[in-house]
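#lab-general

N.A. 3:47 PM
ok so I finally got the sequence cleaned up, no stray characters, all 88 residues accounted for. can someone with queue access submit it? mine expired

B.Y. 3:52 PM
send it over

N.A. 3:53 PM
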Amino acid sequence: MKKIFSSMLVAAALVAFVGTSWAGMIEGTLTKIEGSFYIVKDAKGAEHKIHFNNSTKKEGDVKEGATVAVDEADGHANSIKVAAEKKM
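B.Y. 4:20 PM
back already:
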């Protein structure tokens, strides 16, 4: 019984750690700029709240409604790049 409980405790700790340390690229629509946070809605409809500050590198006209790619780590935007608009 102790072994099962210990295994469950270790598994729960790993899940909690992985959930808080995810990093990567988020692509989608910048739906809102709220204080020092970008709200980005991805292709699956999930919203991501990502912190930014003066160290965040910006490429393009970062404004609500823009299609963006955000490089983030631990909820902080390292960079944000606006996708080029298609011209006809």
